[in-house]
C-alpha cells in the first residue's frame, strides 16, 4: 500500500475513533509498527493528527483545525470521485452552477470542465484553474476575498458578490456533518461565505464522503434540512444513513466501485 493510501486510511480511522493505537493501525493496514509510526509522524508534521504515546488522536482544538488543500486532495480519492460522478450527471447545458471550495467539488470541477457549456460561480482559485487549463467552453466567475488554508476565498468581498447572483444549483463541500450542528466548517468566514452560496441557490446539493459524518467544525453553514440532496459514498454507516435519510431532502449513496473502475480504466 502506498504512503498516500495509508495516510488516507489512518486519517479516516482517526476521524471515526478520535484516538487510535499504532498496533491496531498496523494490523488494519498489514504493515509494520515502524511504518505506522513514520506515517503518524508525517501526519503530525502536516497538522492532520496529533501524535500521542502509542498512537494518534484528532488535533487539539479540532473544531477549528483546517487541513490544507494539498493534504486533503490525497485522501479518499475513490470516494470523492464516485460522489463527483453522481453530481456531474445532474448538470445540463446552460445551468448556473455554484461550486464551493473543497477537494470533492474540485473533483467535480474536473468532470464538469469536460462537459457542456455552463456558468460556474466559485470561491475556489483551484476550481477556477481547472476550467482555465482545460478547453471548457464554460464561463467561470471567481469571487474575490481572503484566501484560507483550504484555498477558499472568503470574507466580505466573497459574500457581497454572491448576494448579487442567482444559481440553479449549488454543490456544497463541507468539513463536517453532525446530527445537531448540521453542516459545519472550521473557518467562521468560510461559513458566512457558504451561507451566502446557499441563499443564492434554488437547489442545494451537499457533497460529503462518509468520514465527514460526526466531524464538527466551529461554525454551522446550514441545517441538515436545508439540503435538497446529500451525496455521500456507500461506506456511510447505518446510523448516519438513517438520520440523513429522514432529514435531508434526498440521500444518494455513490458506489465507490464505479470510481475505482474509472480510475483503473
UniProtKB/TrEMBL annotation:
It holds the Pfam family HTH_DeoR. It comes from the Bacteria. InterPro entries: Carb_Metab_HTH_regulators, DeoR-like_C, DeoR_HTH, NagB/RpiA_transferase-like, Tscrpt_reg_HTH_DeoR_CS, WH-like_DNA-bd_sf, WH_DNA-bd_sf. Residues 3-58 form the HTH deoR-type domain. One of its GO terms (molecular function) is DNA binding. Keywords: DNA-binding, Transcription, Transcription regulation. PANTHER family: AGA OPERON TRANSCRIPTIONAL REPRESSOR-RELATED, HTH-TYPE TRANSCRIPTIONAL REGULATOR SRLR-RELATED. This is DeoR/GlpR family DNA-binding transcription regulator. It comes from Arthrobacter humicola.
Amino acid at each position: 500500500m502506498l504512503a498516500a493510501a495509508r495516510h488516507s486510511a489512518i486519517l479516516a480511522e482517526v476521524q471515526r475513533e478520535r484516538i487510535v493505537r499504532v498496533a491496531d493501525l498496523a494490523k488494519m493496514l498489514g504493515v509494520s509498527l515502524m511504518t505506522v509510526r513514520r506515517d503518524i509522524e508525517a501526519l503530525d508534521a502536516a497538522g492532520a493528527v496529533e501524535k500521542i504515546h502509542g498512537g494518534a488522536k484528532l488535533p487539539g482544538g479540532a473544531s477549528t483545525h483546517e487541513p490544507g488543500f494539498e493534504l486533503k486532495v490525497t485522501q479518499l480519492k475513490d470516494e470523492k470521485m464516485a460522489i463527483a460522478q453522481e453530481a456531474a450527471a445532474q448538470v445540463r447545458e446552460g445551468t448556473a452552477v455554484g461550486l464551493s471550495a473543497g477537494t470533492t467539488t474540485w473533483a467535480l470541477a474536473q468532470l464538469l470542465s469536460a462537459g457542456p457549456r455552463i456558468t460556474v460561480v466559485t470561491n475556489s482559485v483551484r476550481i477556477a484553474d481547472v476550467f482555465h487549463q482545460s478547453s471548457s467552453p464554460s464561463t467561470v466567475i471567481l469571487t474575490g476575498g481572503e484566501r484560507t488554508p483550504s484555498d477558499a476565498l472568503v470574507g466580505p468581498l466573497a459574500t457581497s458578490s454572491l448576494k448579487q447572483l442567482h444559481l440553479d444549483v449549488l454543490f456544497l463541500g463541507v468539513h463536517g456533518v453532525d446530527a445537531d450542528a448540521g453542516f459545519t466548517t472550521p473557518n467562521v468566514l468560510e461559513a458566512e461565505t457558504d451561507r451566502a452560496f446557499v441563499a443564492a441557490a434554488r437547489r442545494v446539493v451537499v457533497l460529503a464522503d462518509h468520514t465527514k459524518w460526526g466531524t464538527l467544525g466551529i461554525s454551522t453553514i446550514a441545517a441538515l434540512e436545508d439540503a435538497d440532496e446529500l451525496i455521500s459514498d456507500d461506506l456511510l454507516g447505518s446510523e448516519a444513513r438513517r438520520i440523513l435519510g429522514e432529514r435531508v431532502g434526498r440521500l444518494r449513496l455513490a458506489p465507490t466501485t464505479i470510481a475505482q473502475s474509472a480510475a483503473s480504466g
